[in-house]
Amino acid sequence: MKKYFSLVLFAHSVFALPFAVIGFFLAVETTSYGFDWVKLLLMVACMILARNAAMAFNRYLDRNIDAANPRTATRDIPAGRISSRQALWFTAINSLLFIAVTAFINRICLYLSPVALAVILGYSYTKRFTPLCHLILGVGLGLAPLGAYLVVTGTFHILPVLYSLAVTCWVAGFDIIYALQDEEFDRANGLNSIPAWLGRQKALRVSEALHVLSAGFILLPMAFIPLGWCYVFGVITYCGLLVYQHRLVSPDDLSRVDRAFMTTNGVASVIFAFFFLLDLIV
């Protein structure tokens, strides 16, 4: 089991899961639907299974690319810790379990489960034909708050869509920063990314613009529902960490990309979710 946790980088679940929690409790607090532990656990199970499938498939599909890239050659499949067949089976099992779990939630979640899988699995192909692959990844993770809202209500609403758009722009922005490390490799091997297409300087500007949009979408819910100072403080902290992230990286210095990518973004999502929940309580 430990090697599969390594394959899917289980710790990176911290990115989207807090926003799924936001979507869930947003539905509980703004609709007539009450809190349900079973639905919460089913939602978390869906998040874990979907992410397992997406990461394992990405590693399977990119195994030859990862082997050729010095930065990724130590990943589990190129290093021989997991076979490509094992990764593919792991993807299939998690995908089927994901669909099965949605069947216990409601019809809309079940009907949309193949669509969600198509987005999160299809992302792995996108770097082969479009530099907008970062946005597709953002859309995949951006499904978290909307999907969690659907778990509770079975209906769509503008509020979870705003959080989904915030996550989409946030993830796309920090994925561009992460992709700076592979700019030369991607260009040399015919792979697509914003850094390979525009260069480091312009790629960072695109990342900044996406993070400004993310901050805007985080603020917009305040126009629809009463949110207090705890929420405002959460927004300020979230935006501050986005700014801090961009101060860590420059076109000439990528030594702190990992710190900007994992630590800063993980903290941003957890802290924002914490203050969102605290606002609901107080």
Written description of the protein model:
It contains 14 helices and no strands. It has 282 residues and is mainly α. Helix 2 packs antiparallel against helix 3, helix 3 packs parallel to helix 7 and helix 7 runs antiparallel to helix 8. It is globular.
Radius of gyration from the CA trace? 19 Å
Q: Largest beta sheet, briefly?
A: none
Mean pLDDT: 92
Tally of strands: 0
Span of the ends, CA to CA: 40 Å
Secondary structural class: mainly alpha
Report low-confidence residues grouped into runs of 5 or more: none
Quick take:
By secondary structure, the protein is mainly alpha-helical. The protein has helices at 2-8, 17-30, 37-61, 63-68, 76-79, 84-102, 107-126, 133-153, 158-179, 183-188, 194-198, 200-219, 229-248, 257-281.
Present the secondary structure layout.
Blueprint: H1 2-8, H2 17-30, H3 37-61, H4 63-68, H5 76-79, H6 84-102, H7 107-126, H8 133-153, H9 158-179, H10 183-188, H11 194-198, H12 200-219, H13 229-248, H14 257-281
Helix pairs in contact: 2-3, 2-8, 2-9, 2-14, 3-6, 3-7, 3-8, 6-7, 7-8, 8-9, 9-12, 9-14, 12-13, 13-14
